[in-house]
Amino acid sequence: MARPGSALWLLRHELRLAMFDMLGMRKDAASMGIGKKTLAVWLILATLMHGFAFMALSHATIPAGPPAHALLKMVGALMAGIFTLMLSTGLNASVTALFERRDLDLLLSSPIPSTSVLSVRLAAIAASSCTLYLFFLAPFAHAGIVLGQFRWLGIYPAIIGMTLTSSSVAMLLTLGLVRWLGVRRTRVTAQLLGALSGAAVFLLTQAFNSAFGPDVQRIVTRLASLFDQGATLGVDSVAWLPARAALGMPLPALLMLATGGAVFLLTARLTHRLFLRGVLQAAGAARVARAPAGGVRLRFGRGLARTVIVKEWRLIWRDPQLIAQVGLQLMYMLPLLMPLLFGRAVSLPTVAAALVFLCGTLSSSLAWIVIAAEDAPDLLRGAPCSQGAIRRAKLAAVAIPPLAVALLPLCWLGMRQPAAAAIMLLACAMCACNSALVVAWCSPPAARGDFKRRGKSNLARTVFELLTGAGWAGLSFILMYGQAHGWKASVVVGSVMTTLLLMAFAATARFFRVKPG
Questions:
Q1: Any idea what the Cα angle at residue 89 is, between residues 85 and 93, rounded to 5°?
Q2: Environment class of 348 (CB within 10 Å of its CB; exposed 0-12, middle 13-18, buried 19+)
């Protein structure tokens, strides 16, 4: 057993926390443990992944010896995509380790050396990330053992080396941002960078399928020429080291492990002072507002609705974690907005459906923050004003930001096709309001820290959110199709039926509403 206070003892504690977080730890202190349902889901998913890997490798004919150039390029592209996802995971985990856990000041005041604290925290980030990606990729190595394709055992050293490197780079980037931008801005910037790196693969695939597909294809073709045989980044360069390691070549596999270990040790040793400085800044990151010049001026002329709206926006603006998490949804709008802004030929019904659905998703997230995660519900209930007026003001605070985002491409479209822009704006407004109402009806009170886990806490609300967003997206698609190709009988019937379905969804959601206690 590890001696209490040693690095191994602390690492075991960190790994237990990571396991509980991954497998679903119960919040009840009297019955803390692993959620059995979550564990069962993970086991079923692992079985399915092993079955899929076995079927994929059993039908693949890969000759022995050095891997072919085509296979090397395919695995190399996969490793590059996985590295971006690892960097995203590492950035989010680094932000959590420095700013969200709030236990580093206690650990640094204990007899444990600060170098051990940094090394253990970095090792825990790397181990949790490595476990996640090996869960999805290790079944191919296991299936390869059964089928006699032992080259796939190289997945283990490739993923371990990439995880050590990506976690170290993520920690270095986070600590560098703390020194450059400060704690508050780093929390937002690091999480946005993590979200952007994680969404990069999605954005790239959408760029191929969008109106910019030919332009992107030409750029990718030029870049791909750099990886041909004999080029600067040819098959003999270091750029192919992860792919060669994943395909079971011994020397690249050893080099991946050695490189990852060296980067990890250098990060833990050389960033010690930067780590301590970041922890101290995080511990003293409370902001004190300056006293206004001329004394405090009380202003009561705003009105109830404006006061509530401004109050909700200020609370969201003061929470950088929520800004980063909600901002991730805006990144997925980029493939939709860019063709409209640059005047490319696009399918307006498809763009309308996607834009409406994303407006509804953003409205649902904001509604959960503003309504379900209200910090002082009892104070609002005891206020000397109408509760209906407060609810309407909260719904306005939720619906205005998605519409403001949608107005950017719709104003550009309105100068060319006013009728289409008006239909899309109306659909976005109705979807945003309907999605906010569904959350207001079906969401019990919650804490803002549970924003990431909001989908697991209430299945009914999640289903109604998806049905509402999909319904309004379908209706906008039908309306835009009718506006472009004529209002045929099938278009009118489809729009009427979709409207009736939306009314049924709304009535059902209101029937299952959570009544305040």
A1: 170
A2: buried
